[in-house]
């Protein structure tokens, strides 16, 4: 529980979960809190340290999530996710990941995505549990049942609105604007417009003096993609020179465009390993220029190495020893920046006899595992995402099927091989203790080959349902 | 034809190729190691710096599993890493390993749509450091294939467009024009009976539907082995030469 000062009174500025359950509230005088809960532990509030911690958190979000991040004091962060969410697998997954990572480090957070800063602010505080994604264009409707405290207005205005009988944002939106502005000043009207996205609200992006940044200010605004590309090349050149002085290579670059209408556009690129190769970086940045809307023109371009790591130089293998192995890092970067890191992968073997568990995805540049799958038994070229039930004529107990019907087509089995018995992995799930699958490779009269299995051994009910499934297609 | 005529024809072909602007290194080929197939391909194998198109025939047009193994076998015999672009992740990696393509050699790209798939395909071909790029594409327009062919020439990389159709109806794709240097159709055939119960090596009908500077042909082959090699079917070897010639003639005509 934190105690701060409001004039001469000492009031609570933050309370812990258990204290909240005991009836303590933010804004309550300290004396009252002591009366309610004798012996409660209090600490003096330190707004300066809080702001510094929020700044550090914003820097972390900047390095990991999106190029435009700003602290939203006293207790929030605002992140412009435009063009950044697809790299994290979509908005919902990005938010869940963010909240989970914060809670892993002991911070309870709620997060929301909406069209405007105002709507996201209100939704994160009053709607998110712990995340919420408002569909585009629906922000106004979604936030209208929320309390007026979500409007980013001073506490006096909130109290004043309560006195007048307004409790939700929707109530305030429904009445004429002029009398409200006359009474509470222009801020309320501006916040309402910002909430609905009627007027733009630039985010002043956080920039840390520690980060390597180069800036180009234009006398005359620029807009043509070729011009942007030319100046991007110049900025990359300067940045690489600055990075070289410090012995660093860039892992993540942010190119911010300040437009004349005071809004921001950003390009973020990442590299798989620290890079200082001008050509590669220019290539990655100019690939994404088409996503930039220059509007009426761009007046400032900022290029920041948001994440930089020491660059270790490697000696290239001499052609005398062996043919040089081509470096794929450049290609990996180009593809990852285009379609997202999760979509480029290698497949590594996993020691499991259950086919759907026998592989896992690993990052594209992870070191060679040197392992492969056992090749004793043939494996199909295509594996169905989930086995599909088939109607089968088969002799029991362990003959291959004589015919089967899959997706409405009946096929006569000409040749078959099997069974290959695969046992359940009891160390993973109790239900698999007795589970059994008998796999058969069958060839029909046309020469097509399929991978069928019967679940269960027909003797114990626990071993499986005794039905037949088609799991894969051979060549 | 006499030897001198052969020489003249070869010389003319060389000159035409120079007009095409293709450099010397682009003429490197990847032989199948099967003389009957290699002698029908110009240069004695699949041209390395170019685009080749493979599709499945018959019932296999949608799954294209035989075509996939054929492509994997070709990719396995190149040197270096292989980029495999797909939109539907139903490929079972152990099968690639059994066709000779070790898991450490394959990079997978799972594109969200056809457009980004083609972009990644082209990017991989242009990079030049890969052994082969395989892409499972549903639609391949003339413009797209032309772009890919140019990218393959620029990067000196073998490109394999593996056609995966959404429906059986679309499957007559080899009727549409394409800039690919060769176009193959792989269909499965019933395998030869074994003396014991069981399933033998799979048999394919390999149709070379189009071949730049060459003739169409079809071959009976045995499926890829653990090194990615196909073998000429023993059944055709047993057949009389006249029967074989008729088959080739029918396919070319």
TrEMBL record, chain A:
Alphabetical list of InterPro entries matching this protein: DNA/RNA_pol_sf, DNA_pol_Y-fam_little_finger, DUF6504, SulA_CellDiv_inhibitor, UmuC
Q: What is its EC number?
A: 2.7.7.7
Tell me one GO biological process term: DNA repair
What positions does the domain UmuC occupy? 2-121
Which keywords, in A-to-Z order, does the entry hold?
DNA damage
**EC top class, in one word?**
transferase
Its recorded reaction(s) are:
DNA(n) + a 2'-deoxyribonucleoside 5'-triphosphate = DNA(n+1) + diphosphate
Cofactors, names only: Mg(2+)
Q: What is this protein called?
A: DNA-directed DNA polymerase
* Annotated source species: Shinella granuli
Q: What is the organism lineage in this UniProt record?
A: Bacteria, Pseudomonadati, Pseudomonadota, Alphaproteobacteria, Hyphomicrobiales
Automatic annotation (TrEMBL), chain B:
Q: Which Gene3D superfamilies is this protein grouped with?
A: P-loop containing nucleotide triphosphate hydrolases (3.40.50.300)
Query: What is the protein name for this chain?
Result: Protein ImuA
């Amino acid at each position: 529980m934190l105690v701060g000062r409001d004039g001469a009174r000492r009031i609570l500025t933050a309370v812990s979960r258990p204290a909240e359950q005991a009836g303590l509230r933010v804004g309550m005088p300290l004396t009252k809190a002591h009366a309610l809960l004798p012996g409660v532990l209090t600490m003096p509030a330190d707004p300066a340290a809080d702001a510094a911690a929020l700044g550090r958190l914003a820097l972390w979000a900047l390095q990991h999530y999106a190029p435009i991040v700003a602290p939203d004091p006293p207790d929030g962060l605002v992140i412009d996710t435009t063009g950044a969410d697809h790299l994290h697998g979509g908005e919902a997954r990005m938010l869940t990941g963010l909240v989970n990572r914060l809670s892993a480090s002991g911070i309870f957070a709620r997060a929301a995505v909406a069209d405007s800063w105002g709507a996201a602010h209100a939704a994160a505080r009053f709607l998110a549990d712990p995340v919420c994604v408002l569909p585009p264009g629906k922000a106004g409707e979604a936030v209208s049942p929320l309390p007026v405290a979500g409007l980013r207005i001073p506490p006096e205005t909130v109290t004043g609105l309560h006195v007048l009988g307004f409790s939700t944002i929707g109530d305030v939106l429904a009445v004429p604007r002029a009398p409200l502005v006359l009474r509470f000043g222009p801020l309320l009207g501006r916040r309402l417009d910002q909430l609905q996205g009627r007027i733009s609200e630039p985010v002043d992006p956080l920039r840390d003096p520690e980060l390597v940044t180069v800036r180009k200010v234009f006398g005359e605004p620029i807009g043509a993609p070729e011009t942007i590309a030319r100046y991007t090349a110049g900025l990359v050149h300067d940045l690489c020179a600055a990075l070289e002085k410090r012995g660093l290579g860039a892992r993540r670059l942010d190119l911010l465009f300040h437009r004349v209408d005071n809004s921001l556009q950003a390009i973020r690129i990442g590299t798989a390993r620290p890079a200082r190769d001008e050509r590669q970086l220019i290539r990655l940045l100019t690939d994404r220029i088409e996503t930039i809307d220059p509007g009426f023109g761009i007046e400032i371009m900022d290029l920041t190495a948001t994440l930089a790591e020491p660059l270790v130089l490697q000696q290239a293998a001499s052609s005398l020893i062996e043919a040089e192995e081509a470096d794929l890092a450049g290609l990996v970067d180009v593809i990852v920046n285009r379609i997202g890191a999760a979509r480029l992968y290698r497949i590594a073997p996993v020691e499991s006899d259950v086919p759907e568990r026998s592989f896992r995805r690993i990052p594209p540049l992870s070191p060679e595992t040197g392992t492969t799958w056992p090749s004793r038994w043939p494996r199909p070229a295509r594996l169905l995402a989930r086995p599909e039930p088939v109607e089968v004529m088969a002799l029991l107990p362990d003959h291959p099927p004589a015919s089967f019907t899959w997706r409405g087509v009946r096929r006569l089995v000409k040749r078959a091989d099997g069974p290959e018995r695969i046992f359940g992995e009891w160390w993973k799930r109790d239900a698999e203790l007795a589970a059994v699958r008998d796999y058969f490779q069958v060839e029909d009269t046309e020469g097509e080959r399929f991978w069928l299995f019967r679940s269960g051994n027909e003797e114990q009910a626990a071993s499986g349902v005794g039905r037949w499934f088609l799991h894969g297609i051979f060549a | 034809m006499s030897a001198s005529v052969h020489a003249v024809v070869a010389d003319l072909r060389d000159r035409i190729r120079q007009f095409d602007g293709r450099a010397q290194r682009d003429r490197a080929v990847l032989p199948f190691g099967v003389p009957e197939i290699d002698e029908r391909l110009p240069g004695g194998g699949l041209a390395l710096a170019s685009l080749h198109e493979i599709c499945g025939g018959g019932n296999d047009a949608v799954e294209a599993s035989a075509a996939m193994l054929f492509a994997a076998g070709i990719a396995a015999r190149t040197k270096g890493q292989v980029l495999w672009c797909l939109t539907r992740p139903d490929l079972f990696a152990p099968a690639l390993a059994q066709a000779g393509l070790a898991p450490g050699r394959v990079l997978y790209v799972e594109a969200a749509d056809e457009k980004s798939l083609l972009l990644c395909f082209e990017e991989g071909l242009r990079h030049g450091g890969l052994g082969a790029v395989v892409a499972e594409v549903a639609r391949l327009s003339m413009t797209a294939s032309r772009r890919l062919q140019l990218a393959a020439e620029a990067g000196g990389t073998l490109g394999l467009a593996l056609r995966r159709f959404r429906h059986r109806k679309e499957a007559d794709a080899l009727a549409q024009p394409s800039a690919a240097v060769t176009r193959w159709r792989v269909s499965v055939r019933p395998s030869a009976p074994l003396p014991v119960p069981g399933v033998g090596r799979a048999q394919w009908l390999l149709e070379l539907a189009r071949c730049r500077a060459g003739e169409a042909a079809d071959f009976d082959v045995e499926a890829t082995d653990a090194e990615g090699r196909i073998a000429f079917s023993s059944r055709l070897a047993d057949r009389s030469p006249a029967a074989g010639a008729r088959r080739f003639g029918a396919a070319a005509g």
